[in-house]
Design brief:
This protein has 91 residues and is an alpha+beta fold. The chain has a domain at 1-41. 26% of the residues lie in helices and 15% in strands. The chain contains three helices and two strands; from the N terminus they run H-E-E-H-H. It has helices at residues 12-16, 61-73, 85-90; strands at residues 25-31, 34-40. Strands 1-2 form a two-stranded antiparallel sheet. Strand 1 and strand 2 (34-40) form a beta hairpin. It starts with 11 loop residues before the first helix and ends with a helix.
């Protein structure tokens, strides 16, 4: 129920399901079927300065290719991997 002060009473079963405690912030995020309740943990201001000292300009395609080549020459692998031969045969 939405009150005259635009406050919403969240049923106990819903509050307890995601582990929400008094004082937590929640957001109602639009979804195709209505809204989704999202518990916001932490404070965005805690992220301040996390990118300090990072590049001020984007990498060029050449710089990206060079970085990829250097990683490949060291024998490192990334998180994106080609499908294994077994998976490729099943397709």
């Amino acid at each position: 129920t939405l009150t005259s002060k635009s406050q919403i009473i969240v049923p106990k079963a819903v509050r307890e399901a995601p582990g929400v405690v008094p004082g937590d912030k929640i957001q109602f995020v639009p979804a195709w079927h209505g809204f989704r309740l999202v518990v916001v943990k932490g404070d965005i201001t805690a992220m301040r300065g996390v990118l300090k000292g990072r590049r001020s300009r984007p990498l060029s395609i050449g710089e990206m290719n060079q970085a990829i080549a250097e990683i490949g020459s060291r024998g490192e692998s990334g998180s994106a991997r080609a499908p294994s031969r077994a998976k490729a045969r099943r397709r």
